[in-house]
Amino acid sequence: MAAVELVNDNLYEWHARLYRLDPDSPLAEDLVELGIPFILLHLVFPDNFPFAPPFMRVVEPRIEKGFVELVNDNLYEWHARLYRLDPDSPLAEDLVELGIPFILLHLVFPDNFPFAPPFMRVVEPRIEKGFVMEGGAICMELLTPRGWASAYTVEAVLMQFAASLVKGQGRVSRKPKATKEFSRRTAEEAFRSLVKTHEKYGWVTPAMNDG
């Protein structure tokens, strides 16, 4: 059986079968137990591939703790789960204490991605400091037009964000949720203000309480 095949004879859309996993991993054990021979992946290639990356998602089986998933089946809008932080950081300790398995992020990609950055914000939990601003907006030069490079991958962005959270001494907020609006609209407004400020004055490390 072929490892890849075209979807509806479309050269830019593939189904790929992933047969090999770490045999000692819990996921590999699940596949053996359930008699599932492979993980089916769906890849969609942009017109300018290989200068831009393909979009890839898991079709089946349904896997818990997936890295990313589409929001309302929209290829340009993702939810991503950040599982890995410095285990010795106060934020990682907060997550363990509160039983929170990951940080949920919302990414919105522009039509000209990867030549322009995605908009990214924290959905939950609410985080104080760590360069996280109102509405979950993220104060990180990499996410601005001036700081972005088309070679960046989503994984690289998340790794940089994880490092920024620790560097900025991020903590899970213990304040009541009703104290301040926490929405995409608020995040977008905060981020636009951030970009405008840095375009005027240059990029400097902000004060911790500003993000």
UniProtKB/TrEMBL annotation:
Superkingdom of this protein's organism: Eukaryota
Keywords attached to this entry: ATP-binding, Nucleotide-binding, Transferase, Ubl conjugation pathway
Positions of the UBC core domain: 46-204
Keyword ATP-binding: yes
Enzyme class, spelled out: transferase
Record-level Gene Ontology MF annotations: ATP binding; ubiquitin conjugating enzyme activity
EC number(s) reported in the record: 2.3.2.23
InterPro entries: Ub_conjugating_enzyme, UBC, UBQ-conjugating_enzyme/RWD
Residues in the signal sequence: none
SUPFAM superfamilies: UBC-like
Pfam families: UQ_con (PF00179)
Keyword Oxidoreductase listed: no
Physiological role: Probable E2 ubiquitin-protein ligase that catalyzes the covalent attachment of ubiquitin to target proteins. May facilitate the monoubiquitination and degradation of MTOR and CCNE1 through interaction with FBXW7.
Protein's recorded name: E2 ubiquitin-conjugating enzyme
Gene source species: Culex quinquefasciatus (Southern house mosquito)
Protein's gene: 6040854
